[in-house]
Write a structure and sequence with these properties.
CATH superfamily: Metal-dependent hydrolases
InterPro entries: A_deaminase_dom, Ado/ade_deaminase, Metal_Hydrolase
Domain Adenosine deaminase: 3-309
Cofactor: Zn(2+)
Strand content: 5-15%
EC number: 3.5.4.4
Largest sheet: 4 strands, parallel
Family: Belongs to the metallo-dependent hydrolases superfamily. Adenosine and AMP deaminases family.
Strand order of the largest sheet: 1-2-3-4
Number of helices: 14
CATH architecture: Alpha-Beta Barrel
Radius of gyration: 18 Å
Number of strands: 8
Length: 310
């Protein structure tokens, strides 16, 4: 199994969050790991993206040193291997984890954790470095240049994440023009918080993979373009349930996109926040959208082909 869309800062162990907070003398809202869960996991009836994003507050407080980044990257690979995965792409925003360190120190720490995890598990894995919508051009450019510097040395691609509806995708044309000029592979978060215009901008930038991309269903012409150009969607069903990508999950368009011939893959997004894993995602789409084991195998094979790890 392979996961193409997995955020490190949304997927590390609750026990580690608790331990790192204690080490850093960070005030906790509860005095046990069990008590922390409501503050780092969304309820099944999560009401909005805003409620979902609140669960990042504590994890982002404790992952702001190189040592913490190395530890959580390593532990995540151990956990994924135990779940039966043999390949994973782990993404994070080094600027958001920098604290008093610089981005380069954070990236090098993540690579150390990645290499330890690979050595112990035998998994194939790589890092996608995320720029952030709302960050300065200089900070995002620094992230991009670090992708270029460490490409093939643990880092596999570039991405941009964050408040898509506030900081529109088209604003980042210069950043992705530079990525193309540098020969850096990239995926782009588009079509989750914002709609078809965001996806169109990402495609115009040359993206061949989209983080989420699920709102392509709102534009029939765009659906045709995505299908015909063989764009791969990194779909995260349970996360989309929690962030209210559609008002009613009965209307979730995964089956429609798959049957239309769009290349969809199934991923977890944030394992801790959504209390999920890849097998749980598969069971979710089997139960609610009547996907067969053969169709899930087909989507998994699509993900292997689309992977930046070669």
């Amino acid at each position: 199994m392979i996961d193409l869309h997995l955020h490190i800062d949304g997927s590390f162990r609750p026990q580690t969050i608790y331990e790192l907070a204690k080490e850093m003398n960070i005030s906790l809202p509860a005095d046990s790991v069990e008590g922390l869960l409501p503050f780092i996991q969304v309820p099944e009836d999560c009401r909005s993206l805003e409620e979902y994003l609140e669960r990042f507050t504590l994890p982002l407080q404790v992952i702001r040193t190189p040592a913490a980044v190395e530890r959580v990257t390593y532990e995540l690979l151990i956990d994924l291997a135990a779940q039966g995965l043999d390949q994973a792409e782990l993404r994070f925003a080094p600027k958001s984890c920098a604290g008093t360190a610089d981005q380069k120190e954070i990236v090098e720490a993540a690579i150390r954790g990645l290499n330890r995890g690979i050595q112990e598990t035998g998994m194939k894995a790589g890092l996608i470095l995320c720029a952030m919508r709302g960050n300065s051009f200089e900070d995002n450019m620094e992230t991009l240049l670090l992708v270029k510097e460490y490409l093939g040395k643990g880092v596999i691609a570039f991405d941009i994440a964050g408040a898509e509806i506030v900081f529109k995708t088209h604003l980042y044309a210069d950043l992705f023009a530079k990525a193309r000029a540098l020969g850096v592979p990239y995926t782009i978060h588009a079509g989750e918080g914002d709609g078809p215009e965001s996806i169109k901008a990402a495609l115009d930038f040359g993206a061949k993979r989209l983080g989420h991309g699920i709102r392509v269903y709102e534009d029939p012409e765009l659906m045709k373009r995505v299908r015909d150009e063989k764009i791969v969607l990194e779909v995260c069903p349970i996360s989309n349930l929690h962030t209210k990508v559609v008002d009613d999950m009965k209307d979730y368009p995964l089956r429609k996109l798959f049957d239309y011939g769009i290349l969809v893959t199934i991923n977890t997004d944030n394992m801790t926040m959504s209390n999920t894993n890849l097998k749980k995602e598969y069971e979710f789409i089997k139960k609610h959208y009547h996907f067969t084991d053969e169709e899930i195998k087909q989507m998994n094979e699509t993900a292997y082909r689309a992977s930046f790890i070669k």
